[in-house]
């Protein structure tokens, strides 16, 4: 009797609350209805608990709350669909999940059960489990892969490009614009007509059947008789590696030459055999030995042909200022420098105008220079995640730039502090093998409706790869761009093009410029973009301005907007010379060497 009385009191309270909850809900915006939905779900669960002692009028009250819950849930789902451009239906979302729906609400069921199920089916249907199967044209070709693997500065790329020139038609894929430019020029110098294609320029040479381009610009729609993929060990890079994987798996080409570090061999063979391709392997060893010096180098006494290595722009500039202040002219190389400036600095070092080179590890993947001795001023670097000691492959990649056959028949390696044991151990160590290659998202994501691109890309990134030697690339930068352009509600095809644009998404200046261009093109429907305006002359500003011009070029090209191409090339040349003059100007004497 007490139980029945308690049930009746609770039931009366729930029945009396219905009108108030309904009234509040009717005046609440859909995006805030989750609180009312939760309140109604709690009342329904309470009503279900009292079913065995159902008071008079129970069925009507239960039906009222059930109808109210459905009404609120439909409004919440409609709001979700409107905000994200989706079309989920209430009946389909809760079907088979009513218990979970009562427990946590319609959006929780949508996120936890309905979307994953739909996406799993769609992903399995649209995206092959094996990355090689994304490239049916390449799978239809009998491909032969020539692996040129070994130490730095051993002629791997030279041999591969010689074959490319011999064939007279094909493509060279470079890791950096400066290398694409160098090989473009070297092929044209020997009479092999070659065009250049990078994210920053296109130079079409009349009659050219050869192309030198950065790996990201590879056109997979075209068939090539011969291809060269340089620095293939980069396929292990979490942000850029997918471009090398795409090239290796997707090239529609019967003869592919692959150049890179030896520790990528087993990974490459796994990928090549999985594709059903044949291969041959050539190992390259140094003709010029390396010798580690036992004593620390006094930076005030470096000699002509030395290259000092640091791992930040700030420290490179500080070292160059220190050397210049002591009468030792120094060329400088770091990642932010435009390719034209790098070449000016390389030329100054080659000519002897600058007796010493100061560089970041960018020197490890670049043109071959006559370097007598590599001097490490640091042995740890920030890799984007943490500060860590250099790996054996990194030490070898950098140290391997020392020595040049016929000029310096021994390459010397040293440090500005006691580091002989570390350097010798790393040079003698067997490099950790590359065990996984990074794959990128496929444009097939656009064919999956269900969710906005951002959510699909995020879910794609969390899916396990079917094969253990592949893993998903880091898509944080792409997700950041999608977040910033979300308010514009652009078509997915446009969003995809925008996340593929090459620019520094972590620079507020570049992101602001990018968003201004998005508004100009897609909101204001302007027919052309405004050219960036140079406002300052200091080094950092000029480097940023150079990137602003590149973004103007890349955005205009990507969306077929008219732009002043001649102005782009002229301004980049002018800015490059300004930067070079900044680097070469007389520096303040620094009496104390930068700490090591």
Describe the protein.
This protein has 596 residues and is an alpha/beta fold. 47% of the residues lie in helices and 13% in strands. The chain contains 21 helices and 18 strands. The protein has helices at 2-26, 34-49, 58-84, 90-94, 98-104, 106-126, 136-139, 156-167, 177-189, 241-250, 265-275, 313-325, 339-351, 392-399, 420-428, 453-462, 476-485, 492-499, 508-523, 539-558, 565-584; strands spanning 144-150, 170-174, 194-197, 202-203, 210-214, 226-229, 255-260, 278-284, 290-292, 306-309, 330-333, 356-359, 373-376, 380-382, 387-389, 411-415, 437-439, 470-472. The strands form four sheets. The protein has an eight-stranded mixed beta sheet with strand order 4-3-5-2-6-7-1-8, sandwiched between helices. It has a six-stranded parallel beta sheet with strand order 9-16-13-10-12-11, with helices on both faces. The chain has a two-stranded antiparallel ribbon with strand order 14-15. A hairpin with a 4-residue loop joins strand 3 and strand 4 (202-203). Helix 1 (2-26) runs antiparallel to helix 2 (34-49), helix 2 (34-49) packs antiparallel against helix 3 and helix 13 crosses helix 21 (565-584). The protein is elongated. The model is unreliable at 586-591 (pLDDT under 50).
Gap from first CA to last CA: 85 Å
Kindly report the spatial arrangement of strands forming the biggest sheet. 4-3-5-2-6-7-1-8
Radius of gyration: 31 Å
Overall pLDDT score: 90
The residue ranges in which pLDDT falls below 50 over 5 or more consecutive positions are 586-591
């Amino acid at each position: 009797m007490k139980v029945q009385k308690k049930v009746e009191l609770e039931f009366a309270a729930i029945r009396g609350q219905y009108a108030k909850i309904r009234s509040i809900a009717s005046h609440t915006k859909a995006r805030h209805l989750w609180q009312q939905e939760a309140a109604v779900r709690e009342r329904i669960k309470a009503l279900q608990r009292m079913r065995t002692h159902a008071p008079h009028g129970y069925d009507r009250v239960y039906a009222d709350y059930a109808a109210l819950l459905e009404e609120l849930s439909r409004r919440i789902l409609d709001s979700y669909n409107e905000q994200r451009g989706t079309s989920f239906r209430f009946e389909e979302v809760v079907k088979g999940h009513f218990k979970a729906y009562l427990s946590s609400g319609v959006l929780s069921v949508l996120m936890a059960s309905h979307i994953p199920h739909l996406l799993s089916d769609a992903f399995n249907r649209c995206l092959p489990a094996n990355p090689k199967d994304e490239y049916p044209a390449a799978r239809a070709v009998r491909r032969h892969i020539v692996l040129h693997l070994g130490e730095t500065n051993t002629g791997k790329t030279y041999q591969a490009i010689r074959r490319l020139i011999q064939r007279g038609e094909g493509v060279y894929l470079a890791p950096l614009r400066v290398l694409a430019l160098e090989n473009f020029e070297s092929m044209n110098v020997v009479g092999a007509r070659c065009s250049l294609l990078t994210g920053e320029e296109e130079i079409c040479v009349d009659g050219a059947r050869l192309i030198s381009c950065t790996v990201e610009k590879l056109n997979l729609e075209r068939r090539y008789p011969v291809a060269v993929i340089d620095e293939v060990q980069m396929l292990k890079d979490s942000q850029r590696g997918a471009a090398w994987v795409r090239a290796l798996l997707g090239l529609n080409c019967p003869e592919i030459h692959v150049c890179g570090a030896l520790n990528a061999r087993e990974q490459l063979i796994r990928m090549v055999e999985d594709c059903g391709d044949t291969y041959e392997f050539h190992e390259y060893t140094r003709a010029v030995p390396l010798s580690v010096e036992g004593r620390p180098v006094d930076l005030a006494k470096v000699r002509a042909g030395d290259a000092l290595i640091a791992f930040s722009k700030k420290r490179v500039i500080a070292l160059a200022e220190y050397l210049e202040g002591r009468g030792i002219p120094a060329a400088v190389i770091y990642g932010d420098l435009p390719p034209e400036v790098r070449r000016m600095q390389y030329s100054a070092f080659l000519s002897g105008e600058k007796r010493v080179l100061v560089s970041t590890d960018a020197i490890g993947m670049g043109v071959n220079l006559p370097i007598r001795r590599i001097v490490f001023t640091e042995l740890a670097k920030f890799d984007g995640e943490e500060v860590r000691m250099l790996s054996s492959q990194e030490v070898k990649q950098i140290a391997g730039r020392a020595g040049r056959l016929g000029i310096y028949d021994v390459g010397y390696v040293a440090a500005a502090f006691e580091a002989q044991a570390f350097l010798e151990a790393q040079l003698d160590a067997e490099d950790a093998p590359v065990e996984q290659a990074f794959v990128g998202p496929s444009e097939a994501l656009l064919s999956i409706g269900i969710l906005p691109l951002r959510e699909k890309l995020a879910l794609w990134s969390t899916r396990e790869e079917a094969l253990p030697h592949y893993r998903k690339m880091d898509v944080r930068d792409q997700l950041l761009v999608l977040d910033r352009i979300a308010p514009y509600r652009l078509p997915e095809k446009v969003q995809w093009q925008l996340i593929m644009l090459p620019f520094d998404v972590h620079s507020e200046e570049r992101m602001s410029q990018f968003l201004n261009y998005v508004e100009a093109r897609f909101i204001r429907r302007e027919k052309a973009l405004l050219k960036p305006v140079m406002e300052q002359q200091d080094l950092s500003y000029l480097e940023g301005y150079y990137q602003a011009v590149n973004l103007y070029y890349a955005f205009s090209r990507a969306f077929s907007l008219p732009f002043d191409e001649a102005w782009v090339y002229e301004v980049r040349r002018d800015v490059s010379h300004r930067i070079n003059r900044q680097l070469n100007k007389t520096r303040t004497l620094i009496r104390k060497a930068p700490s090591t």
